[in-house]
Specification:
3 domains; six-stranded mixed sheet; six-stranded parallel sheet; LacI/GalR-like_sensor (chains A, B); DNA-binding transcription factor activity (chains A, B); Rossmann fold; homodimer; DNA-binding (chains A, B); 12 helices; DNA-binding; HTH_LacI (chains A, B); about 325 residues; alpha/beta
Chain lengths: ~325, ~325
DNA sequence: GTGAAAGCGCTAACAT
DNA sequence: ATGTTAGCGCTTTCAC
């Protein structure tokens, strides 16, 4: 059995009391330099580590933060997680990642589980399926610090981090227009997501600026956020089968973008339709059909969100003023 | 402050002792149906959850397993993690993921941290940099259940899961040969990794089978496993600059493969050199230059590894017999 | 400066 | 069937 040494073992070995050892270990000043030295050296020698679980129980905090994302196999989220970790580690926190796979059920289970005193705070990007927010409202009311990022929620008052989705979508759509496209379809994410409406607005604004009327028939929503390959395939097929086929597609997300390209390839339509969309893939410039991409500052978003969460966790007084950070996207043409 | 209800609160509210409540909650049979019902209903009503930290402290186990991988932003590992989670959740375990970014230091820190009684066992794929295994040996000796997957370690006696790297490499190399290539370079991973030598052997075997002599000048190792973009770039450049330029490259890993394609594109060499390599990317068929790929059964590997680890954790008696599972790869031509 | 004791939330003997 | 108690590993009053 795996049985690590405890403070008690050290006390016994050194003929001291556990409290003395404890104090020495955490460098309390009310301890003689001699004993402190002895303890520290011994602890070092046997590679002693305080039991974090006992510590958590006692201090009623775990020095860990929970991260809930739909999927880790997604460049945007894995980059965001790297950002989160970079801050968390530097401030002595652990990061516990959990995936929803865009399922509402998993989101509820995961947040509950994480919340129940095993994390000090929660960083969450909503699942595509989530329409009921009661699980989050309750945790938030109970006082669990929560920060939303990317797929945020208006109704809960807390810190939030997003990218400038409207502007990103605008840039992508405008790019397509400037390339001469006029019938620009929009392959959108689940309709209830914050990012979906923001990106749609950017799309509309760009069309408006160039006097192209919005045609709702050219907009398809993927309610499973692309987790369902078939859903994307059908949406693309729908576009391709239109009597008046679109000459471009603006795609709202990473998952959707790759799904869209795969469908275009499958239907052999890759040459007569231009694609631009959100993607943080690191192989975006190697794709064929090519994908001009709106890239979100995922790493920075993760950093920012983690900073906000930790400030919430460590705040001595209840925080009343909340901030929504909006980071800028960049656009990369690929041909 | 986030202050969840405790068993004590329930006891007080219901005028019972904490032990009765505890027993009712875990369905001990030595409790009257009436009280059990009352307690359960009340707990349900207030959405009570036992404090997992207190539980861990008491039971000396956390019902969580630690996963150490180099990077989550890697299709192979994220698929493997999905497999791990599928098993872990079904058996009531949590999964704590930590990334080494292929740094030895981070591997040491992360494993220590996870091990120290906050996980019941460890699933690990070694970092590219790791040459010293003392940190793992120590934990293993102390009795922490460890299962290696993908990048395994011979010297520690425990369960292991890999794919048939030799055969995968053989298939890829043979494919290139059958395509008419004769000067086949090999872009390899860090030389100390198990997968590196296994894949190199497959490469050599294929060359041997077709009577092509092995030329060590055609083999380049990437000691940072491709984490260092420049390293890959230089290796590819080295191949391209050879007086007798290779007509194909067999690439040993996902990260390396995309880095290799990027370099080929950069140096405008994508048309006269054929690439085959290990990759679990889900966009592999969309890549240009194209990448014919050896795909590992990542999800299955994760499942298998998790099953092995949990059986180790839950074994009543010390396990002495260990198994190394070797799963088969598949090869996918892309042109 | 150091030790004894209580308590964080929970469970499992050990009473009754 | 239920209550009392001790203890998981740690920190922190409170004594001395």
């Amino acid at each position: 059995m795996f049985k690590p040494t405890t403070i008690k073992d050290i006390a016994k070995a050194l003929n001291l009391s556990t409290s003395t050892v404890s104090r020495a270990l955490r460098g309390g000043y009310e301890i003689s330099e001699d004993t402190k030295k002895i303890v520290l050296e011994y602890a070092e020698k046997i590679n002693f580590q305080r039991n974090p679980i006992a510590l958590s129980l006692r201090e009623r905090r775990s020095y860990s933060i929970g991260v809930v994302v739909c999927e880790v196999a997604n460049q945007f989220f894995s980059q965001a997680i790297d950002g989160i970790e970079s801050i968390a580690y530097s401030k002595g926190y652990h990061v516990i990642i959990s995936q929803t796979h865009d399922k509402y059920n998993r989101e509820v289970i995961n947040t509950e589980h994480l919340a129940n005193r095993s994390v000090d705070g929660l960083l969450i990007s909503l699942s595509a399926e989530t329409k009921d927010y009661a699980h989050l409202v309750r945790l938030h009311q109970q006082g669990l610090p929560i920060v939303f990022f990317d797929r945020i929620l208006d109704s809960i008052k807390t810190h939030k981090v997003t990218s400038n989705n409207r502007d990103g979508a605008f840039k992508a759509t405008e790019y397509l227009i400037k390339k001469g496209c006029r019938r620009i379809a929009h392959l959108a994410n689940a309709s209830q997501l914050s990012i979906t409406s923001e990106r749609k607005t950017g799309y509309e604004d760009a069309l408006g600026k160039y006097g192209i009327p919005l045609d709702e028939n050219l907009v398809r929503y993927c309610e499973y956020g692309g987790s369902n390959k078939q859903e994307v395939d059908e949406a693309v097929k729908y576009f391709l089968d239109m009597r008046d086929r679109p000459d471009a597609i603006f795609v709202a997300s990473d998952r959707l973008s790759t799904g869209c390209l795969a469908a275009l390839k499958k239907y052999n339509a890759k040459n007569n339709i231009l694609i631009a969309g959100f993607s943080n893939s690191d192989v975006v410039e190697l794709l064929n059909p090519s994908l001009s991409a709106v890239r979100q500052p995922a790493f920075e978003m993760g950093r920012k969100a983690a900073e906000m969460l930790i400030s919430l966790i460590e705040s001595k007084y209840p925080v009343e003023e909340f901030e929504t950070a909006i980071l800028e996207t960049t656009f990369h043409e690929n041909t």
